[in-house]
Amino acid sequence: MMNNKNLETIRPNDFRKEYKAIEQELQGKIAKFFDKGRYILGEEVETFESAFATYVGTNHCVGVANGLDGLFLALKALGIGNGDEVLVPSNAYIASVLAISHAGAKPVFVEPNPITFNIDATLIEAKITGNTKAIMPVHLYGLISDMPAIMNIAQENNLFVVEDCAQAHGAKVNGQHAGSFGDINAFSFYPTKNLGACGDAGAITTNSAELAEKIKKLRNYGSVERYRNEVIGYNSRLDEFQAAILNVKLNYLDVWNTKRREIAQEYARIFSDQLWTLPTEPEGYHHVFHQYVVQSANRAEDMRWLKEQGYECLIHYPVPPYKSEAYREVYKNENYPLADKLAEQVISLPVHGKMWQK
Ligand SMILES: *Cc1c(COP(=O)(O)O)cnc(C)c1O
CA–CA separation, 189 vs 64, rounded Å? Predict the structure, then answer.
């Protein structure tokens, strides 16, 4: 079965299977949700914020509308804006880069480590200037970045750290969770993430009561007290409905992450003969395999073969942000060969919490 001998198509996600596995609990929750009749900033959001802070190991969590807003509002809360520079990996997802631009700051790219896919900590210091304010490590594909090294560099250079944890719910290094290292960190609960809502949702985590309070204002028109608008805020609240769903699904995050890790082990066995670079889990790290990403020098051919075997694969991501139409004019004089190479070679095999299960 594991070899996919029956050639059943395996898709990157199967939301219906996931729903079926916890249908009664979700339906019970939804019935209560309509019974209570509270849709914005109620008990479900508060319960989730407190449960997720406990899960991650921070003093505070504040729900927001999505992951991009979480990153953007985190930078705003730190006072980062015009003229400031934020270091971000050159192979990041576009949203990480957009958040920096929306704050008014400049994304400055640092190449990744080609084995972990995460920002290469040894290349960070060369990119620090007088304008650098923060480092934004992006924990790609479920593997947390080298946070011990990054936190040291940040401390020595007086920089903030904003972790992009959108792909790393439950990931750890030395037993410490993604989202608990940086000054203020952002998660996405987009449906495909390891912890996914039934629509858009996000959150920030922090140990700072002051930063948490700032986010609570920024997400709600600058107000925590009705009709008292203290700052020029936004509308970026976590919906009560999404929080209700997340309150159910948070209980399954570790179980489904374990399933993802088992699939990764199985893939390593199935594909051990391929001329690919397979993902690794360095000593001391707990990988949660948001994606199982291999590197192939013959991607088109290999993806065709995988499709014949029944694996519906994706590419995360085919274009590095600096070469996207949105940014290529700005970065036309810069080159990131490693980001380019990864964009040409990466293949994401399907992996999700209910894969290979009835
Ligand atoms: C999904 C994702 C985001 C954005 O999250 P949204 O909720 O879709 O806004 C940001 N960064 C990374 C690395 C992501 O994977």
Answer: 10
Contact criterion met (CB below 8 Å) for 64 and 73:
yes
Among candidate residues 98, 236, 251, 244, the one with its CA nearest the CA of residue 169: 251
116 lines ligand 1 (CB under 6 A): no
Protein residue with least CA distance to atom 14, ligand 1: 166
With beta carbons less than 8 A apart as the criterion, state whether 136 and 159 touch: no
**What is the predicted pLDDT for the residue at 7?**
63
Tokens 């719910």: give the residue.
169
Q: Which atom of ligand 1 lies closest to the CA of 200?
A: 7
Partnered with residue 132 across adjacent β-strands are 85
pLDDT at 357: 79
Most ligand 1 atoms within 8 A of CB, residue of 13, 96, 185, 188 to mutate: 188
Residue nearest (by alpha carbon) to ligand 1 atom 1? 166
List the helix and strand counts (H, then E) for the chain. Answer: 11, 12
Which residue, 309, 313, 347, 348, is CA-closest to 2?
309
166 lines ligand 1 (CB under 6 A): yes
The whole-number pLDDT of residue 1 equals: 38
The alpha carbon dihedral of 72, 133, 287, 120 has a sign of positive
Long-range contacts of 104-113 (CB under 8 A, 24+ apart): 105/75, 105/80, 105/81, 105/133, 106/131, 107/321, 107/327, 108/132, 109/321, 109/322, 109/331, 109/334, 109/336, 109/339, 111/336, 111/337, 111/338, 111/339, 112/140, 112/338, 112/339, 112/342, 113/146
Six token digits for residue 292: 């199982």
Question: What are the mean pLDDT values of the chain's consecutive 10-residue runs (358 residues total)?
Answer: 65 92 97 98 98 98 98 98 98 98 98 98 98 98 98 98 98 98 99 98 98 98 95 98 98 97 97 96 98 98 96 97 98 98 98 85
Q: How far apart are CA 205 and CA 63, in angstroms?
A: 9
